[in-house]
Amino acid sequence: MALIQVQSVSVAYGSPAKPVLNNIGLDIEAGEFICLLGRTGCGKSTLLRLILGSETPASGVVTVKGSPRQRPDPVCGYVPQKYSLFPDRTVLDNITFGPEVSEFNLLTRWSPRFYSRRREFRKEALQLMQRLGLRESDAGKYPDQLSGGMQQRVAIAQAFINKPRILLMDEAFSALDPGTRQGMQRLMKQLWRDTGITVVFVTHNTKEALALATRVVVLAKPAPDQGAGILMQFPVAQPCAEAEIGELTTRLESVFGGSEDLEDSLVPTA
Amino acid sequence: MRIPPHDPQVRMRNNESQSAALPLTSTTWTTMLRTTLIAFLLASAAYAETPSFTVGWSIYAGWTPYHYLMKSGILRKWADKYQVAIKVKRFDYAPSLDAFVAKNIDACTMTNMEALDMPAASGVPTTAIIIGDYSNGNDALLVRNGVQFKDLAGKKVLLVQKTVSEYLFDRAMTINGLRDQIKRVRLINTSDADIASAYISDTSVTGTVTWKPMVSQIGKQKGVVNLFNSSQIPGEILDLTVVRTDVLARPEGQRFAKALTGAWYEMMAQMSGPNADKVLTAIAEGSSDTLASYKEQLSTTKMFYTAQSAAQFGASPELQQKMALVRQFCYEHGLLGANTKSVDDVAIQYPDGKVQGKPDKVRLRFTVEYMQAAAQGKL
Amino acid sequence: MAAGSFLMHAKPGRFSSTMLSWILFATGIGLYFYTAQARHHENPDDRVTPTLAQMVKGITEAAVKPAEDDEPLADNAPLTQRLLASMLWKDTKATARRFVYSLALLVPAVLLGLHMGLFPYAGAFFLRFVLFFDKIVALSLLPILFIAFGIDELSKIMLIVIGVAPTIILDTFNLSRGVPGEQLVKAFTLGARDFDVAYRVVMKQILPRVLNSLRLNLKAVMLFLFAGEMIASTEGLAYRISLLRRHMAMDVIIPYVLWVALLLFVVDLSMRLLNRKLHPWFHEA
To answer: In Å, how far is C183's CA from the nearest CA of chain A?
Structure first.
């Protein structure tokens, strides 16, 4: 059985109901790197939130490891585009938040054992920071003292320290400048390879999707007032030969028009 | 202090509008300046022709007649006779005293105690021209659970401190031979607006000293007893109409005092005359009250309906004895000012020329001149 | 000075800024003493506008002498004993005690707002009622407060709590609703339970803003406290002011009012410093 199963899921918002997703079916196997590709408003983030469990479908069912999603839990790690870090915690404390709350509740948090365990968490966090290209000198900084790229590295470290089976990333690199973005993509790919984690990555950038994914799932609305469906999906070999990338790019361009960033594409949704 | 229940419905407007309207449409400075000057000159010219005086009053059985005095036109008639303009303005009690001390108004209604400790002690020489009435049961000490005087030590008593209420309490304890126990009673300063509800709802409070209509309201409660009231100290809580002494020093000020006194006793005659009920109803309306309720308040108010009786009381040695008690109380409670080193520093002069205190420090004067003139029909 | 220097782009120097900021103070003080002098010239016994010497004397006596209904001190009592037995200290203590109790009672208000913002059932249960209660003029409820809480300390403290708590509740409610959803989701995916999210994520994040909101409401707290003390009490700063007003002892009232202002300023300043110390990450918008 697939790790994540999305079975004939539909979602609608508002009243009168405006369809967002229409009858989506998608199976994701363990170890895949899925990129959900589509334009803003096509429902790809909604699909991600269904897997996350912060939203429930109007009809259909989403299961992870066979059980339906009810609420966000540690099975899935999460890296949103922004507001990922707790502003009141330093970089180090942001990373150790996961193990701290998993092991200690509001009361046991005041026990002496907490402090000895926290030392261990911190050690682990520092190693993770190093692996993600964060300097030790950043450990004591607050999130708003870091650049956007650094913040996302911390957010990834924060998610990784709990070793989730699945990592859900929602436009995680979209706000970064192109250079930083490429660096982050390389880093993400490296982490994926090293850990064998399953990643679902939402993006509206074709180049990013092709650079990261083992499978690209393209979502699109057939018409403005209809819910989005899966327009197409295709596997991408990783690492991918130049020729194949060229071919896939051309294929996506035929659908979305010439731009790599779908927000810039001139042709309306297929 | 008598701070009558606030009633926004009975707010009065000035009889006359003092300020001339300025045309604000003029565009140039010169025009505006000229207009202003002319308006100012006209206004002051008018002012010079008929001198204008303001009387402040507050709601209390003995003072509410001022509302009728103005409404009925009696005051207008007397003012015209003496060629003065008299405005009547309703205040809450405390603000009326403040306005009088600040010299914003020329005459004001107040008790003998406040006349001494507010204007007189603040260095605003004051003369009482009308003795309207004295409290004859209006102010009372009420207790619950059958408590006696001797049980009061350590008990809670609600009252507005530093006012006639505390004076009444002081006198009640003294008369009952418990002067040394006064300090052991727990006096709680309570605003008169809330004193009735506070006393009724909190049964841990033993006593309260207050005045009508609160006394009537509280008295209706089961188990509440009127332990002492002002009818046991007649003539000690007086309700006066006072005028600033410096106003009386001017001829037009004297005309004002005559007009006011004349009007007052014409109304008093109506209040006690054959058509009394009609007049009393109109007066009661001045405080949004009913005739029955107003009559009930009058029953514990000793009104001096005739100028004769008021003048007699004012000239009697009795007044001097009562005032001696009041001024001693004021002094002991620091009401004459922290810098007043002796009770004699705020002196009182009586109609017979006698002075209580240092003769060069006369700040409060009682005069029967106007009341006598009214009695003799010379006004 | 060119007219341009008064426009938006003006850059007043340090010296002129300081001078400008004191002009109104100087004018106010000057006008006061001018009036006081004029009034005293006309009436040496004037109590409405005491002179500086009178005020100094008034407040010194308040600070070293017991209130008139208290036991007088021995003449040779040391200064510290005098200060501690004084009217000013007694009143300050009484008012401060009520103030601290009321602030302490606002803590549950903060917690309630937090829970209303985060737990939909709590929100549904309380929100409408609190919104309604927020519009109630607390002072008008006094008779009910007297019935429910007596006329002693409790009714005064409850007056403050009822007057200020709805504002604090709604403020905290809005603040906790304002925390981005990503934060909550992230916390859940990291293994936090509901109460971890409420107290270890949201509460910690909004605390500096809650403290600021408390700071802004200090004046309201003081206003209700004063109203309560003026209505029924035996000690306290506002009690004294209302009592002294009966015989226009402005020589003590004015210093008392300034003393209250100073105390409020100090409380506000220390809350601001505490906020900065506790939340170095927080930058006021």
So the answer is: 6
Contacting subunits of A (3+ beta carbon pairs below 8 A): C
Could you tell me which residues of chain A have a Cβ less than 8 Å from any Cβ in chain C? 52, 54, 71-74, 76-78, 80, 82-84, 86-88, 97-99, 101-102, 105-106, 109, 142-144, 158-159, 162, 164
Band (B6; pLDDT cuts 50, 70, 90): very low
Helices then strands (H, E): number in chain B?
15, 14
- Supply the range of the domain harboring residue A91: 85-163
Residue B308, burial from CB neighbour count under 10 angstroms (0-12, 13-18, 19+): middle
What are the structural domains of chain B? 52-136+236-375 (3.40.190.10), 141-232 (3.40.190.10)
Q: Chains B, C: CB contacts under 8 A, how many?
A: 97
* Architecture of the domain spanning C85-278: Orthogonal Bundle (1.10)
> Does position B348 have pLDDT exceeding 90, yes or no?
yes
User: For chain C, how are helix, strand and coil distributed in percent, rounded to 5?
Assistant: 80, 0, 20
Residues C242, C245, C246: CA angle, nearest 5 degrees: 100
The pLDDT confidence band at residue B26, using thresholds 50, 70 and 90, is very low
- Residue C233, amino acid: S
Predicted pLDDT at B46: 52
Does any domain span residue A198? no
Q: Where are the beta strands (DSSP E) in B145-279?
A: 156-159, 186-190, 207-211, 224-229, 238-244
Report C:186-215 residues touching B (Cβ under 8 A).
none
Question: Which residue intervals of B105-244 are DSSP H helices?
Answer: 112-115, 164-175, 195-201, 214-219
Q: C191 in contact with A at a CB cutoff of 8 Å? A: yes
Residue located via tokens 């009036």: C35
- Kindly state whether residue A234 falls inside one of the protein's structural domains: no
Q: Please, are residues B205 and B158 in contact by the beta-carbon 8 Å criterion?
A: yes
Supply the mean pLDDT for chain C.
89
**Binary contact (B124, C43; C-beta < 8 A):** yes
Give the range among B32-36, B241-245, C39-43 with minimum mean pLDDT. Answer: B32-36
Total domain count for chain A?
1
Residue B265 has pLDDT above 90, yes or no: yes
Task: Pinpoint the residues of chain C covered by CATH 1.10.3720.10.
Answer: 85-278
Report yes or no: C204 at the A interface, CB cutoff 8 Å: yes
Q: Can you tell me the ipTM of this complex?
A: 0.90
CB contact under 8 A, A101 and C190: yes
- For residue A93, tell me if it sits in a domain: yes
**pLDDT at B14 > cutoff 60:** no
User: What is the per-residue pLDDT across C117-130, written as a single tens digit (0 to 9) for each?
Assistant: 999 999 999 999 99
For A70, nearest residue in chain C (alpha carbons): C188
Q: For A59-82, how does the pLDDT look when each residue is reduced to its tens digit (9 = 90+)? A: 999 999 989 998 999 999 999 998
- Residue B37 pLDDT: 62
In this complex, do A142 and C186 lie within 8 Å of one another by their Cβ atoms?
no
Which residues face A218 on adjacent strands? Answer: A37, A232
Which of B20-29, B161-170, C51-60, C137-146 has the largest mean confidence? B161-170
Q: Nearest C-alpha of chain C: how many angstroms from B110?
A: 13
- C214 near C106, Cβ under 8 Å? yes
| Average pLDDT across chain B, whole number | 87
